[in-house]
Structure formats: structure tokens, C-alpha cells
């Protein structure tokens, strides 16, 4: 049995590979936006995205910390690349679904599995979370949630390999 990446993990890895983003040091809003042909602007208003006449645009809240801007950029990229239509015209449950999808996408976009797999993390859970937050430029709680998902995926794979359930690290 081998570990099989999710569709989302494959999508993000293929997207990054296509635009030659292969390491955490390259995870930069301006670089990625340029390579994806997304125009990025900043204002004091809430972050949002739009596509007008084939031009993709993201407006980020300039008052947010760099880590929050990166996370919101990823969230908005999901809406541009994987959703269509105007949320103001959608039924509320569908809007909720899209927001859940964009939040999940952001976790994997900001901390891609193929990059995370290459990092040697400390054995201490708190230190590992801090290392991921620093390496990928995200908030601590965001890194914690992403690592939690990664550990669950790895544990599920390993559980299928042997009878005893493995520890996190």
C-alpha cells in the first residue's frame, strides 16, 4: 500500500510545478500572482477577489500581518481557480460550502504537501508547528491545523501498513 495524495494535494502540486514554484522560499504573493496572471492590490477593505473580462484580481487587506495576507491570498486564489459565479447570487449553503473549500485549499496552498514532506521536523510537536509556521510564513494556529491534517493522513496510511496505530511524529 502506498500513500495516495488527495485530489487537492495533486491539484496544488501540479499548479506549483507548472509555474516553477518548488520550495517554501518561493511562496511569495507577488511571484505567484505574476505567474498565475492574477492582479493583486491592497486596500483597507476586506480581502476579496473578482474576475472581470478574463482578468483575475485579488484585493488584500493592507492592515493584516504578512502571514494573514498570505493565508487570505490563498483563500482568494481558490475562489478564482476552483469556483465560478457570484456568491451574492448563490444559496447560503452553497456559499458556506465554497468558503469551507477555500479555507481547506488555503491550508494546502500555503503549506503544500510535496514541500512539507521534504522538511525534517523536530520531534517536539510545539517546535514542529513553530518550524512550519516560520518556514511557510503562516500563523501558528494555521500551521497547527495543517500539521494536524498531515499527521492524520500519515497515520491513516501507516495504520493500513501495520496493526498498531503510530504516534504523530
Estimated structural class: mainly alpha
Task: Give the number of helices.
Answer: 7
Measured distance between first and last alpha carbons? 20 Å
Let me know the largest β-sheet.
3 strands, mixed
Which oligomerization state do the chains in this entry correspond to?
single chain
H-E order: HHEEEHHHHH
Whole-number count of domains: 1
What percentage of residues falls in helices of 4 or more residues? 55-70%
Uncertain stretches of 5 or more adjacent residues: none
Shape: globular
- E-strand count: 3
| Radius of gyration from CA coordinates | 17 Å
pLDDT averaged over residues: 91
Strand content: 5-15%
Q: Can you list the strand order of the major beta sheet?
A: 1-3-2
Can you walk me through this structure?
- 56% of the residues lie in helices and 11% in strands.
- With 169 residues, the chain is mainly alpha-helical.
- A three-stranded mixed beta sheet has the order 1-3-2.
- The protein is globular and about 50 Å long.
- The mean pLDDT is 91.
- InterPro entries: IrrE_HExxH (IPR010359).
- Pfam families: Peptidase_M78.
- This is IrrE N-terminal-like domain-containing protein.
Task: Give keywords.
single chain; 169 residues; mainly alpha; 3-stranded mixed sheet; 7 helices; 3 strands
Any chance you could write out the topology, listing elements then pairs?
Layout: H1 7-18, H2 29-36, E1 38-43, E2 48-52, E3 55-61, H3 66-82, H4 92-110, H5 113-116, H6 125-136, H7 140-161
Parallel strand pairs: 1-3
Antiparallel strand pairs: 2-3
Helix pairs in contact: 3-4, 6-7
Please sum up the structure shown.
With 169 residues, the protein is mainly α. It is 56% helix and 11% strand. Residues 25-148 form the IrrE N-terminal-like domain.
Amino acid at each position: 500500500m502506498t500513500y495516495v495524495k488527495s485530489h487537492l494535494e495533486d491539484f496544488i502540486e501540479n499548479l506549483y510545478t507548472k509555474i516553477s514554484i518548488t520550495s517554501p522560499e518561493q511562496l511569495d504573493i507577488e511571484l505567484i500572482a505574476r505567474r498565475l496572471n492574477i492582479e493583486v492590490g491592497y486596500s483597507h477593505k476586506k480581502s476579496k477577489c473578482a474576475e472581470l473580462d478574463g482578468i483575475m484580481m485579488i484585493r488584500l487587506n493592507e492592515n493584516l500581518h504578512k502571514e494573514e495576507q498570505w493565508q487570505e491570498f490563498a483563500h482568494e486564489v481558490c475562489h478564482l481557480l476552483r469556483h465560478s459565479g457570484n456568491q451574492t447570487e448563490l444559496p447560503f449553503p452553497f456559499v458556506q460550502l465554497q468558503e469551507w473549500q477555500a479555507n481547506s485549499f488555503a491550508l494546502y496552498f500555503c503549506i503544500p504537501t510535496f514541500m512539507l514532506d521534504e522538511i525534517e521536523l523536530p520531534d517536539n510537536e510545539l517546535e514542529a508547528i513553530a518550524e512550519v509556521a516560520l518556514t511557510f510564513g503562516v500563523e501558528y494556529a494555521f500551521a497547527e491545523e495543517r500539521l494536524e491534517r498531515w499527521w492524520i493522513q500519515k497515520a491513516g496510511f501507516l495504520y493500513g501498513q501495520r496493526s498498531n496505530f503510530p504516534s504523530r511524529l
